[in-house]
């Protein structure tokens, strides 16, 4: 080896394998300095909290990548900039959610009591009363909507995946399902109201009408979720069943549906959670009442969303009791929707195909 090659080998041996790295606490240091700059401007210049937060964010976006570029190089600097932008977007998205939950908890918790869940608003003026009638109405209306929507949605999805592939009718159904997905909820309520007026005459109000309106909103969700789950079932399972001489309908009921059951049930639960808080359709066709009505096919039926609407817009005298009940009912409705989402996750995990032995 010549002298020049020896010198080059010695030089390469002295080169670091990686570039210098910022310490782990560097982002926190820059964040603290940025917040200090924003707070200082808020005190000296008179910036509001929003302006101070914007200034602190701009300082952080400039200072950390600049420091990283000097020490770590341009690639790591770009990575830190993108990470900061992603975290900022996450924080911005969480602000309205946290604010909403905090506001509902602060205003709704004082209304929560045993009487609030066990009493109705029948003959109640001012203080007292509860949401028992609205909870029962929401349960009954949503139950009937589920009974209507699930069979129709699941069977429509089975046709699209198993029988109607590349057929003109399947394309038309897919297009209509996509259109129904974007229908405003109030249009569904007007459709149900117009249909029931034609059948029963003007002035009709009943809980089943609200169920029909909600089913218009649920069906496209059930169809889409079921269709996607059925598409995930491997064709090899179907072909193996056909090779054993099993007819197609039995292959669907015994092989395809059990394999996709976890996703189908999750989609159904999410659809129920989606329509449980709808107000406009129920306001139009189901109406409102102060008493408990267990018959969805007769008279008006109270539901939680409509109860919240009337309690806040028409709180009565004095108004503070009605508005307190509205916040309490809103807290209960949010808890119900959250519980349905958690139940959907649990059901999906329980019915998921077991891969282990």
Describe how the helices and strands are arranged.
Layout: H1 3-14, H2 26-44, H3 49-71, H4 74-108, H5 114-118, H6 132-163, H7 168-181, H8 185-200, H9 207-232, H10 235-243, H11 248-276, H12 280-286, H13 304-313, H14 319-351
Helix pairs in contact: 2-3, 3-4, 4-14, 6-9, 6-11, 6-13, 7-9, 8-9, 8-12, 9-11, 9-12, 10-11, 11-14, 13-14
Describe this structure in words.
This is Phosphate transport system permease protein PstA. Residues 135-344 form the ABC transmembrane type-1 domain. Its main location: membrane. Part of the binding-protein-dependent transport system for phosphate; probably responsible for the translocation of the substrate across the membrane. Keywords: Cell membrane, Membrane, Phosphate transport, Transmembrane, Transmembrane helix, Transport. The protein has 357 residues and is mostly helical. It has two domains: 19-110, no CATH class; 117-351, MetI-like (MetI-like fold), CATH 1.10.3720. It contains 14 helices and no strands. It has helices at 3-14, 26-44, 49-71, 74-108, 114-118, 132-163, 168-181, 185-200, 207-232, 235-243, 248-276, 280-286, 304-313, 319-351. Helix 6 (132-163) packs across helix 13. It is flat, with a radius of gyration of 30 Å.
């Amino acid at each position: 080896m010549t002298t020049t090659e020896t010198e080059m080998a010695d030089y390469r041996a002295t080169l670091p394998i990686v570039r210098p790295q910022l310490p782990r606490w560097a982002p926190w240091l820059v964040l603290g300095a940025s917040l200090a700059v924003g707070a200082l401007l808020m005190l000296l210049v008179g910036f509001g909290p929003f302006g101070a937060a914007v200034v602190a964010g701009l300082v952080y976006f400039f200072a950390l990548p600049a420091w990283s570029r000097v020490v770590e190089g341009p690639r790591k600097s770009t990575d830190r900039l993108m990470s900061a932008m992603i975290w900022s977007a996450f924080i911005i998205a969480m602000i309205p959610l946290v604010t909403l939950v905090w506001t509902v908890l602060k205003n709704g918790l004082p209304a929560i009591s045993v009487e609030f869940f066990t009493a109705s608003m029948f003959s109640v003026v001012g203080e007292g009363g509860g949401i028992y009638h609205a909870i029962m109405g929401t349960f009954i209306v949503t139950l009937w909507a589920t009974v209507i929507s699930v069979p129709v949605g699941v069977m429509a999805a089975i046709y699209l995946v198993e029988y109607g592939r590349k057929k003109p009718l399947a394309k038309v159904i897919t297009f209509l399902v996509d259109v129904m997905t974007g229908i405003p909820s109030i249009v569904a309520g007007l459709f149900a109201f117009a249909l029931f007026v034609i059948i029963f005459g003007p002035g009709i109000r009943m809980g089943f009408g609200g169920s029909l309106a909600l089913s218009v909103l649920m069906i496209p969700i059930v169809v889409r979720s079921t269709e996607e789950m059925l598409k995930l079932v491997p064709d090899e399972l179907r072909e193996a069943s056909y090779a054993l001489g099993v007819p197609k309908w039995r292959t669907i009921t015994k092989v395809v549906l059990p394999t996709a059951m976890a996703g189908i049930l999750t989609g159904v639960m999410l659809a129920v959670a989606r329509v449980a808080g709808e107000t406009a359709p129920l306001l139009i066709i189901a109406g409102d009442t102060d008493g408990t009505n267990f018959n969805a096919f007769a008279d008006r039926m109270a539901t939680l969303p409509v109860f919240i609407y009337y309690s806040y817009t028409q709180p009565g005298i004095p108004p503070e009791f009605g508005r307190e009940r509205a916040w309490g009912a809103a807290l209960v409705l949010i808890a119900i929707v959250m519980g349905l989402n958690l139940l959907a996750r649990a059901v999906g995990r329980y019915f998921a195909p077991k891969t282990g032995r």
